[in-house]
Design goal:
single chain; 99 residues; six-stranded antiparallel β-sheet; 1 helix; 19% helix; globular
Length: 99
C-alpha cells in the first residue's frame, strides 16, 4: 500500500443523558474496497448499552452501510460532509424518540 491513513476527524463525547458519540474518519489511499479514499466509523452508544444504537461504517467486505436501532442497510456515500450530516440526523431521531 503506497501511503498511510491520515485522521480527518476524531471526536468522542458524552452528552448530558450519558450517551456516547464517537466519530472517526480517515483519509486512506484509494483501493478497490475503498475507492473514495475514505474509511470511517461513526457510532452512538446509548447510556446503559454496550452496542451502538446508530453505527455508520465501511469495513470490507460490506462497504458503506449503517445500523440504526437494530436494522442494517446499505448507505450511499457521497462525501464526508453528507456522511456526518446523515449520521447526526439519525442520532437526533433515535435520541429524540427516546425522550
Amino acid at each position: 500500500m503506497g501511503g498511510r491513513a491520515a485522521v480527518l476527524l476524531r471526536e468522542k463525547m458524552t452528552d448530558e443523558q450519558g450517551n456516547l458519540r464517537e466519530m472517526v474518519i480517515w483519509r486512506v489511499p484509494p483501493t478497490p474496497q475503498q475507492p473514495e479514499g475514505v474509511r470511517y466509523r461513526l457510532a452512538l452508544i446509548r447510556a446503559g448499552d454496550t452496542r451502538p444504537t446508530v453505527l455508520y461504517d465501511n469495513h470490507h467486505p460490506k462497504g458503506h452501510h449503517r445500523h440504526v436501532a437494530g436494522s442494517e442497510e446499505s448507505y450511499r456515500f457521497s462525501d464526508v460532509a453528507r456522511l456526518i450530516a446523515d449520521f447526526l440526523a439519525d442520532v437526533r431521531r433515535v435520541i429524540g424518540a427516546a425522550q
